[in-house]
């Protein structure tokens, strides 16, 4: 039986950095939850990334792969910036 618990994965300096990492995880079908310290996402403040307990090892594996290039980071930032809001 799978647990519904969300586990802390990583701290990020801001929401955009968290979204980039979340984007990498989502591409690999890992569900992601971002918790911002700031009252409004995008304001100064750090963010924490959480994944379901069942996906924690997969998420760590995804992040341990070859570092993302500057071009990939730029592409992800553009895709996330133009994605429709839910």
Record the SSE blueprint:
Blueprint: E1 6-12, H1 15-27, E2 33-36, E3 47-52, H2 56-64, H3 70-82
Antiparallel strand pairs: 1-3, 2-3
Number of helices: 3
Helix and strand sequence: EHEEHH
Q: State the major sheet.
A: 3 strands, antiparallel
Question: What integer is the average pLDDT?
Answer: 83
Please report the distance between the alpha carbons of the first and last residues: 30 Å
Show unreliable segments. Answer: none
- Helix and strand content put the structural class at alpha+beta
Overall geometry comes to: globular
How large, in whole angstroms, is the Cα Rg?
13 Å
Tell me about this structure.
It is a single chain. With about 90 residues, the protein is of the alpha+beta class. The chain contains three helices and three strands, in the order E-H-E-E-H-H. Helix content is about 40%, strand content about 20%. Helix 1 crosses helix 3 (about 70-80).
């Amino acid at each position: 039986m799978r647990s519904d618990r969300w586990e802390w994965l990583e701290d990020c300096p801001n929401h955009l950095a968290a979204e980039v990492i979340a984007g990498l995880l989502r591409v690999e079908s890992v569900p992601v939850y971002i918790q911002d310290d700031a009252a409004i996402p995008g304001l100064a403040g750090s963010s924490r990334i959480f994944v379901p307990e069942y996906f924690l090892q997969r998420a760590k594996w995804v992040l341990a792969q070859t570092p993302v290039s500057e071009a990939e980071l730029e592409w992800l930032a553009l895709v996330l910036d133009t994605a429709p809001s839910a």
